[in-house]
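Handoff note, outgoing to incoming analyst
You'll be picking up this chain. Sequence as last confirmed:
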Amino acid sequence: MILELVAVNAHYGNVPVLREIFLGVEAGEVVSILGANGAGKSTLLNVICGILTEKEGKVFFQGERIDHLLPEKIVRRGISQCPEGRRVFPEMTTWENLVLGSQTRRDKGNIKEDLQKMFALFPVLQQRIDQLAGTLSGGEQQMLAIARSLMSRPILLLLDEPSLGLSPILVREIYRIIQELRNRGTTILLVEQNVRKALNVSDRGYILESGRITIEDSSQQLLANPKVKQSYLGR
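Most recent structure output, in case you need it:
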């Protein structure tokens, strides 16, 4: 198992956010974390990345504990997060944002090759290469944020609400790219409110409600689950 969370709790001050989380991701899998806004999904990713320090429990990556490491050391281990809200650097160009994503790498000679791979996966970024990131459309910024995360050559990619605020056409494009990454064998932990889209590209999913995992199953079974249908699929 490439990622494992064991009895993880997290809180902000005295306010509990995550309670007794047990979760695992196998190499090559796409696993979805699903739930309503405020369920604790983004907090879960921040625990994995070492951003949230108010936590208890164990986080293992490739068999080694990482819950005590600083965020930059976790990135060097091979975990990259594409955060909610994109968070590109608006005053930097598309090129500069992409190169920034590779700063933790030691194999500097391969960066140019990976930039070409990003342009093949996201052709619009090559067209916007010298454009300030802040002037890109919302969909283009999301593509840039994902590409920037991939530039670190992650072993595990964390995607936080990649469809948030995008039009239906752009959501379809973003999920086409996620499907392509899956086909390439990229291991992804995907946080989403768009339950149907997420389950259609993932192998398994966890339903998070009020900081607790209430359902865990294959994506196919979750799509057929009456509770999931009623609560998250609108039927």
